[in-house]
């Protein structure tokens, strides 16, 4: 049997390579994708081969990740659980697709992942496999083996002489990192009453230690896609990196939430999404002057559908394609720039402008406006209130009839 394993080089996948060889007599091919995590793919090939893999595929997926997964999610405005900007969820369908492509390329029989049986990622990966490679078997060691803890995995590795170089045996947190965010889970965070220690944060400066002077940043968009920072055009990857740097040094983008996992339990996570926070805030504000009220309401409904779809791993579906097509239509006029003021953990919009703006000062002004006749409001309000006036008339008439009947009964001496 030949198996393509989604490989990170961490403890779990380092153990899974020999476990697959022992339990499935498998020829193991490792696949790792660089979506912006620290260190990228450095050293992973040598490590995979040392642990028993027959081949390694290292994929630089950063540009595709930002352009085809991050920006569409940003454009539609999807937020899960009111706060989570979906950083981990966005990377999984891309990694799953590339894993399937490599499996077909090397003639593999199966794909495998290192996700636990408690998390969302197992669903996200396996729905991608099902949509793109239904003929492939799926092996999920955490749902099969007897290694029920990190300590058991460490012992398993040592027994087989597997090098744990680069594996932090004392780490407190489970982390996921890509160009969009870094997440922190587990350890002391499993107590929802625990306030995170400042040393846990790896990207963002503490707001208390942020610069004493505010910083302004202007983000430019074309059809809902960010294209410039402070007037300078940038590639998708470099634009996000730049905004991460700016937001992080002002302590912007921290989120601490208890979310509802797909499998049914609640889980606490702390996220750092500095650039993403700035992008969401700026784009939402630009929409306020470039799309109409009904379109804005429709977009908000679509955003929730997208958030659930992405969180649950249903990326490779007609549902996502349809929502994305609608989003592209609604965003076609979302072009312009927004200026944000960053200061000690906060960011707020101070300016917005667009060549396609629907905002007209001559209409909005409280002063005299040749384009607007205040008297026109009378007819509008009368028509707009027609249902309310009809209901009130009905209720008044009905109330008069009831009063008349009661009076007639009293006069007849029946009461």
Structural overview:
- This protein is α/β, with parallel strands linked by helices.
- The protein folds into 3 domains: 2-61 and 89-169, Rossmann fold; 176-291 and 331-359, Alpha-Beta Complex (Argininosuccinate synthetase, chain A, domain 2); 369-415.
- Helices cover 43% and strands 19% of the residues.
- The chain has helices at 11-24, 44-50, 62-76, 87-106, 121-132, 150-159, 236-249, 274-290, 293-311, 318-330, 361-364, 376-384, 386-411; strands at 2-6, 27-34, 55-60, 110-112, 137-139, 174-177, 182-185, 215-222, 225-229, 232-233, 254-260, 266-272, 336-343, 346-353.
- The strands form 3 sheets. It has a 5-stranded parallel sheet with strand order 3-2-1-4-5, sandwiched between helices.
- Strand 4 (110-112), helix 5 (121-132) and strand 5 form a beta-alpha-beta unit.
- Helix 4 (87-106) crosses helix 5.
- The N and C termini lie far apart (92 Å).
Number of helices: 13
Strand portion: 15-25%
- What is the number of beta strands? 14
Kindly provide the name of the CATH class of the largest domain.
Alpha Beta
The appropriate CATH architecture of the largest domain is Alpha-Beta Complex
- The arrangement of helices and strands along the chain is EHEHEHHEHEHEEEEEHEEHHHEEHHH
Within the largest sheet, what's the order of strands? 3-2-1-4-5
Q: Cα-atom Rg, whole angstroms?
A: 28 Å
């Amino acid at each position: 049997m030949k198996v393509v394993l989604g490989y990170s080089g961490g403890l779990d996948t380092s153990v899974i390579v020999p476990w697959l060889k022992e339990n499935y007599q498998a020829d193991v091919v490792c696949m790792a994708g660089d979506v912006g995590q620290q260190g990228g793919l450095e050293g992973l090939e040598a490590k995979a081969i040392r642990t028993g893999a027959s081949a390694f595929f290292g994929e630089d997926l950063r540009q595709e990740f930002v352009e085809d997964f991050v920006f569409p999610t940003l454009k539609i405005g999807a937020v899960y659980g009111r706060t989570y900007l979906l950083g981990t969820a966005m990377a999984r369908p891309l990694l799953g697709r590339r894993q399937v492509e490599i499996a077909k390329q090397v003639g593999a029989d199966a794909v495998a992942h290192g996700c636990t049986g408690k998390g969302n990622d197992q669903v996200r990966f396996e729905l991608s496999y099902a949509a793109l490679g239904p003929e492939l078997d799926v092996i999920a060691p955490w749902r099969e083996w007897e290694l029920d803890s990190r300590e058991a995995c460490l012992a398993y590795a040592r027994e087989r002489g597997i090098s744990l170089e680069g594996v932090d045996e004392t780490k407190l947190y489970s982390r996921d990192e890509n160009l969009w965010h870094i997440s922190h889970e587990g350890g002391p965070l499993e107590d929802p009453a625990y306030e995170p220690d400042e040393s846990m944060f790896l990207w963002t400066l503490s707001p208390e230690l942020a610069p004493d002077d505010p910083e302004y940043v202007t983000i430019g968009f074309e059809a809902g896609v960010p294209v410039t920072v402070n007037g300078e055009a940038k590639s998708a990857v470099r634009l996000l990196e730049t905004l991460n740097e700016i937001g992080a040094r002002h302590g912007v983008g921290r989120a601490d939430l208890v979310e509802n996992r797909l499998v049914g339990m609640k889980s606490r996570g702390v996220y750092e999404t500095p650039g993403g926070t700035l992008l969401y805030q700026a784009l939402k504000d630009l929409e306020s002057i470039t799309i109409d009220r009904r379109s804005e309401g429709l977009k908000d409904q679509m955003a929730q559908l997208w958030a659930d779809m992405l969180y649950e791993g249903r990326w490779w579906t007609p549902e996502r394609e349809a929502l994305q097509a609608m989003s592209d239509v609604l965003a076609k006029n979302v072009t312009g720039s927004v200026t944000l003021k960053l200061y000690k953990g906060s960011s707020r919009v101070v300016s917005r402008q667009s060549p396609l703006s629907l905002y007209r000062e001559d209409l909005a002004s409280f002063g005299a406006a040749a384009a607007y006749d205040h008297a026109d409001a009378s007819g509008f309000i009368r028509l707009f209130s027609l249902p309310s006036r009809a209901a009130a008339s009905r209720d008044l008439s009905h109330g008069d009839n009831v009063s008349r009947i009661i009076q007639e009964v009293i006069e007849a001496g029946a009461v």
